[in-house]
Amino acid sequence: MNGRVTVFDTTLRDGEQSPGCSMTPVEKVRLARQLDHLGVDVVEAGFPAASPGERESVRAVAAEVSCSVAALCRTREEDIRHAAAALADAARPRIHTFIATSDLHLAHKLRISRDEALRQAVAAVRFALTFFPDVEFSAEDASRSDYGFLRDVVAAVHEAGATTVNVPDTVGYALPEEYGATFSRLARDVPGVTLSAHCHDDLGLAVANSIAAVRNGARQVEVTINGVGERAGNTSLEEFVMALKVRGELLSLATGVKTEEIVRTSHLLSSITGIWPQPNKAVVGRNAFAHEAGIHQHGVLANPLTYEIMTPASVGASESHLVLGKHSGKHAVEARLRGLGLYLSKDEVESVTARVKELADRKKFVWDEDLLTLVSCVPDRRVRLVRYQVLSGNDLMTMATVEVEVDGDRRSGSSTGNGPLDATLKACDAALGLDVELLELTTRAVTGGKDALAEVVVKVRHGEAEATGHAASTDSIEAALKSYLSALGAARTSALEAAAA
Ligand code: KIV
Ligand code: ZN
Predict the structure, then answer these.
(1) Which of 9, 81, 101, 118 could form a disulfide with 139 if both were Cys (CB 3.0 to 4.6 A apart)?
(2) How many domains does the chain have?
């Protein structure tokens, strides 16, 4: 191998910027632990200046993991102070400061000159270095910046002491040859600088561009699990890492990622956010190792190399485990959770065990996927479904009644509707006396089988507040109702918090 590439994971920051991917501090810590275990070098935990909740998340992650923890900030002093404070307990803190360098951003977004941007970049790096020795600088929209100016900024922040300089393709515009060429020019023009690639997937080229960057001198790549991220997402960790591994003879570059942990990490992220990669997603999609055509199946049985360029085991993709039943106790549940990379508190294990038993009464087998879903769908106590009834048929007027409990107070409502889902959600609105807009609703069968758990994610708007709910049940209408109520509970809480502020 000719070199080692630093894997900088930004699932908790850029990844969290994808719609529906926001995570609570507890969820961020859970994922950060698994990222650490996966072997990434840096976890970017968030953008502390954004909100108090974000500061709490970064602080919690920083105190938890042993790898480097980065916090993003603009070049403003108060942003840098927030980042430094949130990283105070990190074993290896890194401040990551950025400013745009393209004329488009300078003229229309920041309304400053090139000279001013350069001055702010250098001042921010110097100021960040007064807190910690590890400081990364990013030239936002680098791929659409004038090369001469980009080179001057990279040279100036390197000279000021930035330990890594990131050259992002912020809008996913670059083509691999041109992005690679920018890295080889910068490596030549600014000797000694450690360059980083950060690519977005607007043209589906994020992984290809990241590979072009490392072939031309980049020694850090910024990635996310499942490729989540702003708009079309970021470079997918699993695709980039496996490309380096599978094509090692050509690329001669290594990472510290334990590839056998990849699928587990991907599942953990999906179970937290409720967003699963499409079935044909490379490396981690449900079908990534499925062979449908008879001729392929025959070949794989004779010799897996005929149609497989990597083994399922090399990324930790194995058969589902049959885990638990109604007689399983909390020790069995805890052991299986640990096998899945989940280290929960005693109370959490007890609550999951109770829900495993409930589920085992309704469905024959409880699989790993079911367990992950139960962990991510924590029942909402603020607005609770008591019962519902629905009368429906293809030649009947659908009629639903829903009874709910709001902070201990029971209310019921009825409605007709265009099918059972429409009628029950409208009955819910009637029970609560609320006017709610349903923005999105997705349903997924967690496993195969007619008795499979249905996982429903909904997004609602109530007044100014938008919120996401997430619930699962073997009854898909019940799952939708619970998910809807949990989104309403969250929307109501944020409306109350906004009113109190
Ligand atoms: O895409 C981008 O340019 C970014 C920077 C803030 C690193 O996310
Ligand atoms: Zn980005």
Answers:
(1) 101
(2) 3
Mean predicted confidence (pLDDT) in 275-294: 84
Instruction: Quote the pLDDT of residue 23.
Output: 86
Q: Whose CA is nearest to atom 2 of ligand 1?
A: 170
Considering the domain architecture, whether residues 29 and 136 belong to the same structural domain is answered as yes
Is residue 437 classed exposed, middle or buried when 0-12, 13-18 and 19+ CB atoms within 10 A define those classes? exposed
How does pLDDT run across 164-198, given as a tens digit for each residue? 999 999 999 999 999 999 999 999 999 999 999 99
Average pLDDT over residues 137-160: 98
Q: Are residues 417 and 354 in the same domain?
A: no
pLDDT of 386 over the 80 cut: yes
Domain that holds residue 307: 294-373
- Cα 206 to ligand 2 centroid, rounded to whole Å: 11
What SS3 class is residue 447? coil
pTM score: 0.81
Determine whether the shortest distance from the Cβ of 229 to ligand 1 is under 6 A. Answer: no
CA 421, 422, 423, 424 torsion: positive or negative?
positive
Does 427 lie in the same domain as 358? no
Whole-angstrom CA distances from 458 to 357, 417, 444 are 26, 18, 12
Q: How far is the CA of 260 from the centre of ligand 2 (A)?
A: 26
Backbone angles phi, psi at 10, to 5 degrees: -115, 25
Task: Indicate whether 403 and 367 sit together in one domain.
Answer: no
The residue that leads in pLDDT, 363 or 293, is 363
Q: How far is the CA of 139 from the centre of ligand 1 (A)?
A: 8
User: Rounded distance, CA 192 to CA 157, Å?
Assistant: 12
